[in-house]
Amino acid sequence: MNQIQRREYLIKKLLAENPEYASATVPEDEPTQRLLLRALMNVRAPKEISAEFQQVQDEYLQAENAQQGVVTVDQFQTGLNLWRGDITRLAVGAIVNAANSGLTGCYLPNHNCIDNAIHTFAGIELRNACAALMKEQGHPEATGQAKITPAFNLPSDYVIHTVGPIVEGDQPTPQDEQLLASSYRSSLALADQNGVESIAFPCISTGVFHFPNQRAAEIAVATTREYMKQAQNIQKVIFDVFKEEDYAIYEQLL
Q1: H-helix or E-strand containing 161?
Q2: CA dihedral of 141, 144, 147, 152, whole degrees rounded to 10
Q3: 19 falls in which pLDDT band (50, 70, 90)?
Q4: Model pTM?
Q5: What is the distance in angstroms between the CA of the first residue and the CA of the last residue of the chain?
Q6: Gap between the Cα atoms of 115 and 113, Å rounded
Q7: DSSP letter string over 78-145?
Q8: Taking Cα atoms as reference points, which of 69, 94, 92, 53 lies closest to residue 193?
Q9: Mean pLDDT of 117-143
């Protein structure tokens, strides 16, 4: 199969899983196909997939991820680093996902959050792995804690999922700040325990979680610097940002 055939196969299989989509057809143009495939993956509940589907999906996603361009860890120096770009392109020990308490990803079709992107480009196996963790745990993930899974089709080795605090008022409370620091600390400790030598963080709790960008970055950098004094395995930390505003904040802090 080529990429077009793989994409059409995946769309047809996902449509066939749901009787509601029985009358749906595969669009002819590539951009619409891509959006439809991502949307179908986003809304799919955790459940098993066939070996054939997994093979085709993995071949498709690995080719797509390679086409985006992989950023290797040797491009970063020992210590704290700043990088602006798509975190799913980083071939590092672990990337951190700003998750919600359900931990199984974003179910909004084609949503532009990092949770959606990571689950999309890792593949359906990631949602299934997270669902298994949550079933075993028996309750939602606590704010400030972290879980680790394989990264599946992403170029990193692991994904570390952490739930940052949601700021309710105009400014974060002391508890909000403590919980955000805990998200970074828990992620670093979990990476260290699993022999991870490089880890990339997004801007946890900013955006829809309403943590002010400046204060969130200050906590991220201070917590990481403190942890690195005792790190056993971690050698490189990358603060991955997407917005120009965040790049300027981190550049000043670092």
Answers
A1: strand 158-163
A2: 100
A3: confident
A4: 0.94
A5: 47
A6: 5
A7: SEEEEEES-GGGEESSEEEEEE-TT-S---STT--SHHHHHHHHH-HHHHHHHHHHHHHH-SPPPTT-
A8: 94
A9: 96
